[in-house]
Amino acid sequence: xxxxxxxxxxxxxxxxxxxxxxxxxxxxxxxxxxxxxxxxxxxxxxxxxxxxxxxxxxxxxxxxxxxxxxxxxxxxxxxxxxxxxxxxxxxxxxxxxxxxxxxxxxxxxxxxxxxxxxxxxxxxxxxxxxxxxxxxxxxxxxxxxxxxxxxxxxxxxxxxxxxxx
Amino acid sequence: xxxxxxxxxxxxxxxxxxxxxxxxxxxxxxxxxxxxxxxxxxxxxxxxxxxxxxxxxxxxxxxxxxxxxxxxxxxxxxxxxxxxxxxxxxxxxxxxxxxxxxxxxxxxxxxxxxxxxxxxxx
Lengths: 165, 122
Description:
By secondary structure, chain A is mainly alpha-helical. Chain A has helices at residues 2-7, 11-25, 30-46, 62-87, 107-119, 145-164, and strands at 96-101, 123-128, 134-139. Helices cover 70% and strands 0% of the residues of chain B.
C-alpha cells in the first residue's frame, strides 16, 4: 500500500492524464489506453516534488454539479460583459478592486475558485494575499462591491468548501 | 437541414461574441478593464466555433469528435493563468500598497510581498 502510494502519488491526476491522452488521440484502441496510462504513471511521479501533499476530495460527485453551474454562469457572463462593453459608456462604468476574504484553506480549492472568478461575470482574480487568506478581484463594473463579494462566497466558495474540505 | 441551421447559428453566436471581445479591447479605457473583454467574450466566441465543429462532425461527417472538448478544457486552464499574469504585471507596474484595498488579516498582497525596498542611491 505504501509502495503503491509512492508510485502513484496522485491517483486523480493519473486518471485524468489517461483520459486526456485517449481523447487527444481520438482512437479507442488498447494501444492508446496503455500509453496514456504509462504517461499517467510517469508524469505524476516526475512532478511529485512540486506537489508534495496528496489532494483529498470529500464529495467528488459534487464536481459535476459545480462544472455545470460554472458553464451556465460563463454563458450568462458573456452576455452581461457584452452588454457592458457595447452599451455602457466608459464614463458611467466604475471599474474597481475588491478584496474577498477566504474561508477555503486547500491550495487546490483556492486555485479553482480563482479560475472560476476569472471566467465568470465581470470579475478577474488578480492576486492572493501573502498568507492566502484573501483574494484580490478586479471588477469591470463595481457599483455594488458587497453584492459581488457575497455572490462569490455564496455561489462558488460554499460549493468548493463541500467538495474539498 | 436543421443541422445546417444549428451549425450556422453556433457560428453566428461565435462571431458576434468574438467581435464584441475585440471591440472591448478598443473601447474600454483602462488596462485592467481591457483584460475582461478578451478573457470572457472570447470564451463563448471560441466555444461557439467548437460546438459548431462538433455538430458538423456528428450531423454531416457522421462521427463524434471529442477534440473540441479537449480544446475547451485547455482553454479553461490557460485563460485564467494568462489573465492572472497580466494582472500581476499591472500590479507590479501601476499599483502601490495603498492604491489596492486592504488585504485582510495578512496585511499585504502576495505581489507586493517582496521584502524591503532596496535603499535608493544618491
